[in-house]
Amino acid sequence: MTTWHLTLGLTGLALLGATLAPSLDALPPHAGPAPSADPPAPSGAVQVSVAADRHEVAVGRLEERFVTVTLDPVAQDVAAVDRPLDLALALDVSGSMAGDGKLDQAVRAARHVARALRPQDRLTVVTFSNAASVLAADAPGRSVLRALDGLLPGGGTNLYDGLDAAFQATQGPPDGRLRRVILLSDGQATTGRTDDASILGLAREAQAHGVSVSAVGLGLDFHEDLMAGVSDAGGGSYAFVDLRSDLTRVFASELDRSARLVARQAVLDLHLAPGVDAIELVGWEGARTADGWRVPLGDLYGGEARKVVLRVRTRAEVPGSTPLAHAALAFVDVQTERPAQAQADLAVEATASVARADASVNAPAAAQAQRAWGARLLDLASRAYARGESDEALELLDASQEAVQELEQLGYADLAAEDDAVLRAQEEVYRSVDADSFGGKEAIKRAKEASRAKAR
Q1: Pairwise CA distance, residues 176 & 171, whole Å
Q2: Looking at the domain assignment, is residue 443 inside a domain?
Q3: pLDDT in tens, 287-333
Q4: Residue 26: enclosing H or E segment and its boundaries?
């Protein structure tokens, strides 16, 4: 294990703590599926596996290891889970949406959704500026298309009321519908309840009521940490759409993913064995528990594997099989609409041979962990650059580059080349472009989006 794993540096570690602390405080103590009269049943809807970056540890040596939990939702027959969709689009129509054709983009994307939905689906369009209003509701037909005509931008950005109105629009009798909200904004919350905690709390409440919330940031002036946080709290997805991209594709992707939904309200509990200490959770929001971490994951889709990486510290005292971790996933199985669970255990072999332990590389797990760790360092670099601390940002990029080299040595040259290209592009910007410029803002959002994707 290279030294930078152990010596990220005081500044970087302080940044990690400062970045994670607010989100940990905001997490509810018992996130997950609502209590049910029926106990969670073992389910094959999501395959869970857990692995360490080495198969063995050396007896008597204090070691850091990456533990990676892989969640693989099993693609199901869409026809067998063909449930009607209750979708609410919350569209920002504040004054800032007037420029660069942003409102036109939003209207085109909403029209695409209205045409793509089926007669049994339900669509609500909510617009918000200084306040929120329901523009159209119910069947996604001509009335919705007509309501989208003539929208005029103006006023401030009341994100909270827009999200709340969309959430309330999806509240109805338990008729088996998949309930989703897509929040679109190009700016900061400027009116109404503007604090992040209130907005994130509302997204969390929506997920607790079975409504998934996805967030789309348009342009370069929106609060990307808040919008990404909304998607995490709401259990949905996050997308950054620049003015050169097609917003319609993002909305179309959301519809496609809805059809592939396998599990919702997924929560992963990582229990560490006695003597194993958690150092940090990489790339996810989570809450510390007595023996590990609790990680809310939200929606899981067929064909989209997820990973959760944890850095741990352990010391084996005697040779033989040594438990490291137990992973327990709780979720609502979309096919049965019942609480379900899946579990997996991890043990490594403790050996008296240091050389043997060092050579026992688990290449697939190590590669997943290195990619997540490198992405975390890239995220920290982008935040340092945004604060105007370019030298620190470049140092963190150098540390992330070491993860790229590890990937290549592990035999993952294609992934290493992909990550290297991202780092080099960021480095060029950090050295020559002001963080408040168009290019600087775009680089920050791109880096955070890439970090998020690669860490998960």
Answers
A1: 12
A2: yes
A3: 999 999 999 999 999 999 999 999 999 999 999 999 999 999 999 99
A4: helix 10-26
Handedness of CA 389, 395, 398, 400 (dihedral sign): negative
- Amino acid found at 144: V
- The reply to whether 30 falls in a domain is no
Is the Cβ–Cβ distance between 373 and 60 less than 8 Å? no
Report the candidate in 300, 367, 364, 311 with the shortest Cα–Cα distance to residue 71: 300
Return the closest-CA partner of residue 297 out of 46, 82, 43: 46
Helix (H) or strand (E) holding 453: helix 438-455
Domain around 179: 82-259
Helix-helix angle 363-386:10-26, to 10 degrees: 90
Considering its fold, how many domains does the chain have in total? 3
DSSP strand pairing (338-351 vs 41-42):
parallel
DSSP code of residue 128: E
Angle at 286 between CA 253 and CA 372, to 5 degrees: 65
Last residue of a domain, one of 332, 360, 388: 360
Q: Is 73 helix (H, G, I), strand (E, B) or coil?
A: strand
pLDDT, tens digit, 9 for 90 and up, residues 212-224 = 999 999 999 999 9
382 in the same domain as 347: no
Whole-angstrom Cα distance, residue 425 to residue 431? 10
Say how far apart CA 389 and CA 402 lie, in whole Å.
Answer: 21
Q: Which alpha helices (DSSP H) does 44-171 contain, by range?
A: 102-116, 142-147, 159-169
* Burial state string for 370-402 with b = 16 or more CB within 10 A and e = fewer than 16: bbbbbbbbbbbbbbbbbeebbebbbbbbebbbb
Sheet of 63-73, strands arranged across: 46-52, 63-73, 306-314, 277-282
CA dist 176 and 84 (Å) reads 8
Distance between CA atoms of 111 and 91, rounded to whole angstroms? 12
Q: pLDDT, tens digit, for every residue of 371-387?
A: 999 999 999 999 999 99
**pLDDT for res 3:** 33
C-alpha 118 chain-centroid distance: 28
Cα separation, 103 vs 445, whole angstroms = 21
